[in-house]
Amino acid sequence: MKCILPAVNVKLFAKAIHCLAKIGLEIYFEPLENGLALKTVNLSRSAYVCFLFMRSMFHVYEHGCGDVTVNGDAVDTFKCKVAVKTMLQVFKSLSSIERSVESCDINLDEEECSLVFQLKCRHGITKTHQLTFQECDSIQAVFAKDLLPNILKCEHKLLSDVVVNFSPSLEEISLCVTPCRVNMKSYTDSDDEASLTMRTEMSLNPEEFADFQIGVDTDVTFSLKDLRAILAFCDVACIPIQLFFEGGGKPLIFTVEQENYFRANFVLATIANDEFSSQRENNVMSNTAFKTKMVNGSKNLQGKKSTTKSVGARYSRTKQSSINQQKTSSVLPNGSSKSTEMSNHGRTSPLNEIVEDTTRNNGGHADGSPEIPDQNFAVGQDHISSPVEPEYRDMREVFFAPCQNDDHTIVVLAPDSDEES
Amino acid sequence: MRFRTKVFNIDCIHHFTNVVNTINKLLKKCTLRLTPDKLYFILPDQVSNGGVSMWCELKQANFFDEYQMDGVSSEHNEIYMEIIAENIVRALKSAHNAKSMKIKLTKKQTPCLTVEIELPSINSSSRLVTHDIPVSVIPRRLWDEYQEPTMPEFHVSICMPPLKTLKNIAERMKNLSTYLTLSANQEGDMVMKVETELVTVATRFQNLELPPFKDDDIASQAPSKLWPPTEMASARVDIRKFLQFLAGQQINPFKVICNIVNQSAIHFFLIHDDISLQYFIPAASV
């Protein structure tokens, strides 16, 4: 792969690297047919970022490698990951990049095993950085943001204005929406903490949003630090930001997009709604027949280690990713569209929901391995996933939770897992 | 117990913010005392504070457009509460370009000082920010700990030169030593001095103004009457505490009076139109 980034776009690219650095430890570097993708996922796998810089952003973009076929299967292009720190070295100072860089050449040669960034600066100075990298599989979050009921669009400035009011030490923020009001609140975990820390709430009028579609009244709680990283990027990109979400425990997607130029998707995990999960747990406990069913269901989802206890669990950023994976997945089954629909229509018996859930869970996995869903499975979903991520079908994925329903996709983070053979 | 106040004037909000910022520089946790016409920020003289104490009073009428309060009872019409200064600073940061600000005492999960700020937005609607700052209300029996400190029986009282100048000097002296000796006499001379084994650095100020004495406060002046006018009274203080006081100033006082109790304490008195702030630093033993 070989490309040349003109001066006007180097800053945006650099800012994207800075944003990735605030979230993950490694940057996945993927030259695609239609552009260069940079992705990362954070340590607890609660945040995923994908930047796609399209061909038109580059002076020259040679995808290279061609479509080699081995045994009739298309082998996708060479992909690698780079430690964030090394990549940051190249784009350390934004101000000096803005001042002096005239173009940036990026060269990835898999034969030679070299990834070279060349910054062509003024006065004929060329800075060459040879980065070390690691060959890897791709990562891919699966999500169908267009199917989510709540969509907000606003200038990034609006969100920045909201975020400055919150304490820098605050971990999580809640976004509560109704058709007539949008509230952002500080979120504290435990009650003891709540009595000591300052609580902040900001309320906004829907008129402030360029696009305001609320299908479901809900509140979602997510990491404020990640949001700050996103907004820092938007500050340079200066284009409106879109939010797609459904409810607690289901992902929140931020999209920043400039047609045919670049696109950034940020997928953040949200904390599962307490009441709902504890209600489920109670119901599970009260009915042993369902309990066993539930255990089977969740085992299918989470692998052998899981227990019913984790059904009510929330994600935690500090936990090991494997634990987290379980926890998140325990939350995600609620995400199947039917149960949400039910809760919207005046909460039909939660027992039914469990039946729905478990049957679907079982059905979805009757044949597949519980931990690594079949590749075909992902291919089957292909028509839903947006054309944004064309490389998607060839990825090996470990899902946080599989999709049970054909019409809806649940967001899934698909890390390059250690477990795959 | 009830407290609610409103401000519409942005200058008043900024002024109040400056006071709170100053206080935040001096201490972490302070006591807010509310009376029908004044607000007080108090740091009582306690060993846990390292002997430093502070007393700041503001006239409410100069800051707030509306001010209503009912104290714990009709004969004790006051409220005392403990609050983290940084939280007020953060809350007021949102009010930088506010249309209006309300501060009130509320009962949420815990007692809170709620700051409601109305901000302008790009269209006609307004944005509303609410900060709930947890406070602990101090019961009546503990109020005695928070009484106004008595004027110390100082030996020398002198008006300080501009604090900015002092700050620049003290910052450099800080690199040499952790203690600074401040001394002054009754003829308008003041000396800031640091001493180490290798070097002694002293800065002298001359012809400083002497604050006029009021005859009603005889007790505190008694020692100064006996003090020889040319004799230096001095106190050795922690340079960081002194700098904290100098660096945090955002209220532009028109006069800063420094009272030195020989070998035991320094008392600073900031005078402004509607604010007065007193700050005590104990002398460190040699």
UniProtKB/TrEMBL annotation, chain A:
Say which domain of life the source belongs to: Eukaryota
Coiled-coil stretches noted in the UniProt entry, renumbered to this chain: none
A Pfam match is: Rad9
Q: Where is this region: Disordered?
A: 295-378
Compositional bias (Polar residues) at which positions?
Answer: 295-310, 318-351
InterPro entries in alphabetical order? DNA_clamp_sf, Rad9, Rad9/Ddc1
| Record family assignment | Belongs to the rad9 family.
Please state what the protein is called. Cell cycle checkpoint control protein
**In which organism is this protein found?**
Clavelina lepadiformis (Light-bulb sea squirt)
Automatic annotation (TrEMBL), chain B:
Please provide the record's keywords in A-Z order: Nucleus
- The question of whether Cytoplasm is a record keyword is answered with no
Q: Which organism is it from?
A: Clavelina lepadiformis (Light-bulb sea squirt)
Q: Where in the cell is it found?
A: Nucleus
Q: Give the range the annotation lists for the signal sequence.
A: none
Q: Record's family?
A: Belongs to the HUS1 family.
UniProt name for this protein: Checkpoint protein
Q: Name one Pfam family in it.
A: Hus1
The answer to whether the entry has keyword Nucleus is yes
Looking up InterPro entries in the UniProt record yields: DNA_clamp_sf, HUS1, HUS1/Mec3
Main location class: nucleus
Q: Which SUPFAM superfamilies match?
A: DNA clamp
